[in-house]
Fold:
Amino acid sequence: MDVRFPVLVLAAMALAAQAGTVTQTSTVRGVTVAATAGNLSAEATVWDFAVVLDSRDRELPDDVVANAVLVDASGHQQKAILWEGAPLEGRHRAGVLKFIAVTPRPDWVELRITRPGEDRPRRFSWLLPGRLVAWR
Structure:
């Protein structure tokens, strides 16, 4: 794995922590998915989320771009446009998932990541007015 991607993800998480953003995690059948909102400002044209997938005992061939959507307060779904991170292999993967910014800017967004073999998508939500706050 290219060492730059974990460093970029850690840097994005550090910046998000300074901005008051919370990293959310979901563990199902031994696979943990963590998501941290990056730049979701009103001025941004692209929104990003740091995403980490981790398993102790199985490969994670998830196509994150194909299986992630951003849902706004009106229920509109938007597909991801880019994954900058680890390729479709390994037990520990990290990267930044990108979406075209939702306009008009909603009060909250929910990132949904569907994993192969799981009945329901993993869900991570953030309130957007003012500072970013995780919401479950």
